[in-house]
Amino acid sequence: MTDLDQMKTDLLAAIDSAATLDALEAVRVSALGKAGSVTALLKTLGGMSPDERQVQGPRIQGLREAVTTAIATRKASLDRAELDARLASETLDMTLPAAAAPQGSVHPVSQVMDELAEIFADLGFAVATGPEIEDQWHNFTALNMPESHPARAMHDTFYLSPSPLRGEGRGEGASASVGVLGDPAQPLSPTLSLEGEREMYVLRTHTSPVQIRTMMGQQPPIRIIAPGRVYRSDWDATHTPMFHQIEGLVIDKGITLGHLKWTLETFLKAFFERDDIVLRLRPSYFPFTEPSAEVDVGWTMEKGRRTLGGSEGWMELLGSGMVHPRVIAACGLDPNEWQGFAFGVGVDRLAMLKYGMDDLRPFFEGDARWLKHYGFSALDVPTLSQGVGA
């Protein structure tokens, strides 16, 4: 039998001198592989007598354990040396610019909503909200729109086919469970209003119902703005079936058109951040205001674009007027005691005019490239001290 001590010395020396992992693996195979020298010695134990096995067995097993431990130790040393070499050669320059992770942005409509809230909060206005699914009393009747009014026509208004109601009446109509949009070719299931009228629910066509709910829910004086989504059946470069609107309402004693004009002028100067904003009020007609006025804003040509400010021409921007006495009376207030004014403007239109957008449809298409170009950082918080625009 080969001298075990000499074999152990030779194998440990070979393991210690292995300079690479491949060389170490070769030593392991030659010693502990299927045809390895230590494996061959282990196989001889079966042919030994009990006395020989009692003597040689512990020596051969000790040899295998010594070789196995030495290989594991050398492998750990070689792994550590290889890692140190990689760390020394694979350096990372922290001064190089890193690729920025994809970031979201604040939609221009959301930004303009925040700008408007900031401006009107400084003027003492609170923000009021209401349901987007309305009964016709709040959306039309209380706003002095008779049943024959063209705004009630199917081609302008989205009528809803209602499911069984949990409650009815002016205060609970919007909380009813409502089904899908009705087919104009099929008769819609009507519901019974508080007045006994047969009516369907609608997607609100303006945020004016919020004014009605506010006047019915709190006592004057009232100063609110009502921003939110509204719905009308239209689709082109300047109209979409869903768009955003903001309306303002003031109810108090002794309110005049002069207060309305000052409020609009102050608001527009702050929003467009220009002192040369000029307004022109033209007589008009809205069923919920009397007298009514369309508000035109002066514009000038700058770099080939119409920019609000100056007086080279006039651009129609919003509608306004004194709240109709019938609307005040419908909300349970005495029109001989309380007066007020109201106005409404499209938030999307304001965003287009301020930030130079020509088409309304991309506002709602979710194009990441458009949002990256026109969007705002979450840190672009509107403040009057620093300017509401980013």
UniProtKB/TrEMBL annotation:
Keyword Zinc set for record: no
E.C. designation(s): 6.1.1.20
Cofactor note: Binds 2 magnesium ions per tetramer.
Binding sites annotated in the UniProt record for Mg(2+): 290
UniProt subcellular location: Cytoplasm
Primary residence: cytoplasm
A Pfam family it matches: tRNA-synt_2d
UniProt GO molecular function: ligase activity
Keywords of this entry: Aminoacyl-tRNA synthetase, ATP-binding, Cytoplasm, Ligase, Magnesium, Metal-binding, Nucleotide-binding, Protein biosynthesis
InterPro entries xrefs: aa-tRNA-synth_II (IPR006195), aa-tRNA-synth_II/BPL/LPL (IPR045864), Phe-tRNA-synth_IIc_asu (IPR004529), Phe-tRNA_ligase_II_N (IPR004188), Phe_tRNA_ligase_alpha1_bac (IPR022911), Phenylalanyl-tRNA_Synthase (IPR002319), tRNA-bd_arm (IPR010978)
Annotated ranges, domain Aminoacyl-transfer RNA synthetases class-II family profile: 110-362
Broadest EC class assigned to this enzyme: ligase
Substrates-to-products reaction catalysed: tRNA(Phe) + L-phenylalanine + ATP = L-phenylalanyl-tRNA(Phe) + AMP + diphosphate + H(+)
Names of the cofactor(s): Mg(2+)
Family of this protein: Belongs to the class-II aminoacyl-tRNA synthetase family. Phe-tRNA synthetase alpha subunit type 1 subfamily.
Assembly description: Tetramer of two alpha and two beta subunits.
Name assigned to this protein: Phenylalanine--tRNA ligase alpha subunit
Organism: Sphingomonas psychrolutea
